[in-house]
């Protein structure tokens, strides 16, 4: 897969099948658009192209407001594009200046100039260009004059609920990570850096690594205990993770910590790891004593090890 981040580096294509979008979360609904574009491109023996944006447009246009929690990093998005067999990706740096580019300018100065699409596949709710002028209706009319076919992909629903980035954010924030993972089509997680903690886990015979997200404004699941999968220096490790304030010890600061089952947890400090949230096990709670907490941690571990057969 070829990735471009600057227009001047693009090698123009004679023909392509192209799609455009922020693809926030790149959930199963977005994947239907990508798969359709790839299938059509293969049938026509041309390149399948995605034009996307980084950072998320809302992070630029909503300056001064609370930032939209990040659902997917650009690196994860690119990995998924490659898995879905996209040939070429243009990542446009989204700035306030770029936000003033009209839909017509975008089509003429980027889409047609560099990619010469025979077909454009777009989601039913996607808009692009200044003041969201590039609606599906605009695109149909514009492309009909250029001899370009446009196909608008409708929403994907499950049990009557339309899959959307907003809905998935709500599921994760409420702790329903298993359902969110189903709707995403991939396991929710993020890159994190291991930092020094209080060392309580080692005293409990459950050594943990404290971590903080690499990305700013990262969406975090609801406080509680989770069955997790970690990727550490090329290794895949399973474990359990606690997000919360550790009330048994009377603490108030929010902490994220993970215990990997098949690791002594040494030499992780300052490492970058990936944490994926497979299932929520229980709420965080205050125990009467350290001994009661240890008993519960042992139960949590046994429960997670039973779940492991579903994922390993």
Question: In short, what is this structure?
Answer:
This protein has 312 residues and is α/β, with parallel strands linked by helices. It contains ten helices and 14 strands.
Index terms:
Elongation Factor Tu (Ef-tu), domain 3; alpha/beta; Rossmann fold; 32% helix; six-stranded parallel beta sheet; 312 residues; 10 helices
Description:
The protein has 312 residues and is an alpha/beta fold. It has 2 domains: 161 residues, Rossmann fold (3-Layer(aba) Sandwich), CATH 3.40.50.620; 124 residues, Riboflavin kinase-like (Elongation Factor Tu (Ef-tu), domain 3). Helices cover 32% and strands 28% of the residues. The protein has 10 helices and 14 strands. α7 runs antiparallel to α8. The mean pLDDT is 92.
Chart the SSEs and their pairings.
Elements: E1 2-4, E2 16-20, H1 28-44, E3 47-54, H2 57-61, H3 74-83, E4 88-93, H4 96-99, H5 103-115, E5 117-123, H6 136-144, E6 149-153, E7 157-158, E8 161-162, H7 165-173, H8 177-184, E9 189-195, H9 200-203, E10 209-213, E11 224-232, E12 235-244, E13 255-260, E14 272-282, H10 290-311
Parallel strand pairs: 1-4, 2-3, 2-5, 3-4, 5-6
Antiparallel strand pairs: 7-8, 9-10, 9-14, 10-13, 11-12, 11-14, 12-13
């Amino acid at each position: 897969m070829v990735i471009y981040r600057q227009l001047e580096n693009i090698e123009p294509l004679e023909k392509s099948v192209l799609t455009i979008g922020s693809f926030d979360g790149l959930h199963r609904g977005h994947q239907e658009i990508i798969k359709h574009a790839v299938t059509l491109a293969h049938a026509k023996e041309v390149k399948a192209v995605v034009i996307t944006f980084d950072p998320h447009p809302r992070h630029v246009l909503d300056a001064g407001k609370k930032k939209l929690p990040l659902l997917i990093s650009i690196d994860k998005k690119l990995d998924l594009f490659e898995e879905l067999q996209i040939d070429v990706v243009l990542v446009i740096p989204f700035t306030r200046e770029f936000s003033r580019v009209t839909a017509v300018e975008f089509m003429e100065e980027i889409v047609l100039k560099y990619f010469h699409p025979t077909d454009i596949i777009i989601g039913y709710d996607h808009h692009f260009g200044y003041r969201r002028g590039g609606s599906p209706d605009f695109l149909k009319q514009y492309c009909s004059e250029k001899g370009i076919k446009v196909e608008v992909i409708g929403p994907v629903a499950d049990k009557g609920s339309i899959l959307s980035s907003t809905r998935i954010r709500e599921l994760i924030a409420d702790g329903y990570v298993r359902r969110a993972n189903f709707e995403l089509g991939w396991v929710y997680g993020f890159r994190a850096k291991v930092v020094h903690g209080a060392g309580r886990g080692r005293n409990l015979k459950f050594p943990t690594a404290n971590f903080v997200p690499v990305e700013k404004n990262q969406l975090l699941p609801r406080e509680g205990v989770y069955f997790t999968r970690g990727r550490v220096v090329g290794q895949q490790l399973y474990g359990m993770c606690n997000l919360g304030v550790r009330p048994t010890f009377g603490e108030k600061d929010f902490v994220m910590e993970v215990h990997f089952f098949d690791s002594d947890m040494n030499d992780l400090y300052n490492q970058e790891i990936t944490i994926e949230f497979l299932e929520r096990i229980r709420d965080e709670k205050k125990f009467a004593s350290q001994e009661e907490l240890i008993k519960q941690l042992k139960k949590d571990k046994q429960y997670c090890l039973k779940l492991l057969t579903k994922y390993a």
